[in-house]
Specification:
Aspartate Aminotransferase, domain 2, four-stranded mixed β-sheet, 17 strands, pyridoxal phosphate binding, binds pyridoxal-5'-phosphate, Aspartate Aminotransferase, domain 1, 2 domains, Aminotrans_3, 37% helix, alpha/beta, globular, Acetylornithine aminotransferase, 12 helices, 389 residues
Amino acid sequence: MIASVLPTYNRAPLSFVSGEGAWLTEADGSRYLDLGAGIAVNVLGHANPDLVAALTAQAGKLWHVSNLYQIPEQQRLADMLVEATFADTVFFTNSGTEAAELAIKMARKYWYEKGAPNRTEILTFEGSFHGRSTGAIAAAGSEKMVKGFGPLMPGFVHLPWGDIEAVKAAIGPDTAAILIEPVQGEGGIRPMPDADLKALRALCDETGVLLILDEVQCGMGRTGRLFAHEWAGITPDIMMVAKGIGGGFPLGAVLATEDAASGMVAGTHGSTYGGNPLACAVGARVMEIVAEPAFLAEVNRKAALLRQRLEGLVAAHPEVLEGVRGQGLMLGLKCKVAPGELVKAGYAEHLLAVPAADNVVRLLPPLNITDDEIAEAVLRLDRAASRLA
Ligand SMILES: Cc1ncc(COP(=O)(O)O)c(C=O)c1O
């Protein structure tokens, strides 16, 4: 008999009833150190008092109004995002997938309105992940995600990761946009080198092709800058955000320049819940905390500490681990064993990490993890790796 919850997930036999900071607790009181943070979602940890206060204050006033009306919390968060980034305008969604859908629509509508309705093609990269909608799986294109779900939305060209020459060769008269994660998450914590991001920006400037960055996983302070592309000193035309921006409350967004968004006039897109007052009240509080230079400086300091200790761990377990990669607190441990095995061994040590492709275990702790918790995490990872030796 089928499970009452559709069995699309391979769930671990763990069940948490409460959380505090970087810790999750099961009903019997056992505590787990969370280096997954809901897959890069709980940027300020679990049950963060500031976010609880923002949510409960809003919950006592107003939960939901339609986008038929002005929503002051939405306006406030949009203003903050515009102020802090390249963007001139923001559309709020409930998830990263919905942000992907709008980014694709926005790029195509841009060219349609510019009198080039043929420019619909979007260049994407192997190993990428943009969500699970029919559009987002077509965009990423991996066999694992698309098999059995055809016919797929046409108009995506899949290129080898990091191959700038292939991008140059693929840009043609029908190209609308390039869509890329500055740091691939699900693909195994693969950062696109700054020089390559710069080269993509230059190609887009030369050809008019729009640059869409998917910062759903790598954005919101995760790499030590508010958004990962800032390290490369470039800006996109359109950017997808989700996960961390809500700190655990479902929220996503598409940020865009005025020009890139010019086709999206009244009636062209909408969402019942997108930009909901509860989500935006929490999102604004997340922004107030995470966008602070002093907060981001701490992320970078802690990232250096964690990385250094992880390098030591790799040296201590050459039969299990091959290397560390990533940026900020978006780190990957490249494994010589199946990553699922290390994650399972972590469970036995009451440590949560997340497997990814390319034989990598992802470490995506809350951005406010403490130095002591970093030390404790590395101890537990050390014991987990010893279990596999
Ligand atoms: C880079 C990236 N884009 C898009 C998504 C989809 O986001 P969501 O699961 O919120 O729909 C994810 C989720 O893992 C992601 O990592």
